[in-house]
Amino acid sequence: MSTGFFDDIAKIAYEGPDSDNPLAFRHYNPDEKVLGRRMEDHLRFAVCYWHNFVWPGNDPFGGQTFERPWFGETMELARLKADVAFEMFDILGAPFYTFHDHDVRPEGETYKESVARLDEIADYFAGKMENGGPKLLWGTANLFSNRRYMAGAATNPNPEVFAYAAATVKACMDVTKRLGGQNYVLWGGREGYETLLNTDMGRELDQLGRFLTMVVDYKHKIGFEGTILVEPKPQEPTKHQYDFDVATVYGFLKRYGLENEVKVNIEQGHAILAGHSFEHELALAGALGILGSIDVNRNDYQSGWDTDQFPNNTPEVALAYYHVLQQGGFTTGGTNFDAKLRRQSLDPEDLIAAHVGGMDVCARGLKAAARMVEDKALSGPLEERYAGWRDAEAQAMLKGERTLEQIADRVAKEGIEPQPVSGRQERLENIVNRYV
Asked: Which residues does Mg(2+) 2 bind (predicted)?
């Protein structure tokens, strides 16, 4: 039943690349086969709850610009918000959605009241999901908005805040499991520091390690079969966050023995803030065996903060999916639109159009990536560049069968004088451009 908010916008259909309908897919065809798999099953799109239905349109220099009929702190309005959200999921044909606990219900005056409200709205979600609604890609807890978390959650100097955060995560994991969530995400929104003058970094890292270990232990205790994900972010709101980037997260996981239990949810915008490209973070996560899921929202390259814009750059997205495909594609993970409208985009139709465009860009990128994989357009030259390492002597060096002295003796005896070989970067860039 229509809520009326979207003015009876019809379900978005695939009309092909020649369509000029702004509310139709031109490239995203869920049933199209890509590398033998349905496009929908490759991309596993998820629509986020927070930016679409909670964010009021504010920025650091201005307040609310959006006026939504569900804005308010009552359970009645929370149910209206859910009605509108699931209507939008249906219009888009989105197979998944994602949420924080704070997005879906008003916070209570006590922890018990907050949990009761979360359970109540989860029952409401379950009813909608049973009637053909989307699945839950992942749930998470908001451990950053309330003033209690101004000095962090797991890393807070106050152990009672640590305890409250742990209890909150338990409740959210319970709901995520009950709703069939395929992952559980921890985003350390304030797990970092503003100044080292009042920070014991070693202590805080140990607290965070203990917290994450308890989360993993609880996952196994309740039989949650999904993946635990950590989302790297370098800064904002804190000066320095402990989950700075993929490399930092992996080092943290290794230190606390969690590298086989936890994977990463990589956001394009966060990669940019860390001084990396999206493809760098994906390639590194793949090489380390911790690639789990992605948030495909970009930043404005002329801005130094997290602008959370919808994807619109096909070459960037194509290279991102190339690395996802190189790792075998998503398993429990997917493509989450952690993106928000511009604060001047006021109309309900803007919410639909933004996702339609983003889904089309991802579909174009996926198809280009798949063709590059099929044609070995990049993997062929890569194998050629490293071909020398297949030789027996090269393999012996890698396997530890040669000492430094033995290698030096061989270089001297054989008169080895290696010469540089072109990396052919421009040629490879031209190859990518032919596919996108």
From this structure: 267, 270, 306, 308
219 in the same domain as 134: yes
Check if the beta carbon of residue 30 is closer than 8 Å to that of residue 14: yes
Instruction: Give the chain's domain count.
Output: 2
Given the residues 42, 51, 102, 103, the one annotated as active site: 103
220 in catalytic set: no
Catalytic residue, chosen from 27, 42, 51, 100, is 100
- pTM of full prediction above 0.90: yes
Active site annotation includes 103: yes
Q: Is 83 annotated as contributing to ligand binding?
A: no
Structure confidence by residue, pLDDT tens digits, 45-87 = 999 999 999 999 998 899 999 999 999 999 999 999 999 999 9
Confirm whether residue 350 is marked as ligand binding.
no
User: Does the annotation flag 41 for ligand binding?
Assistant: no
**The two structure tokens encoding residue 411:** 């270089």
Contact 253, 259 (CB under 8 A): yes
Range of the domain at 115: 33-375
pLDDT tens digits for range 385-429: 999 999 999 999 999 999 999 999 999 999 999 999 999 999 999
297 and 395 fall within a common domain: no
The sign of the dihedral angle between the CA atoms of 310, 135, 12, 292 is positive
**Which of 134, 107, 147 lies closest to 46 in space, CA to CA?**
134
Query: CATH number for the domain including 365?
Result: 3.20.20.150
Confirm or deny that 270 is annotated as ligand binding. Answer: yes
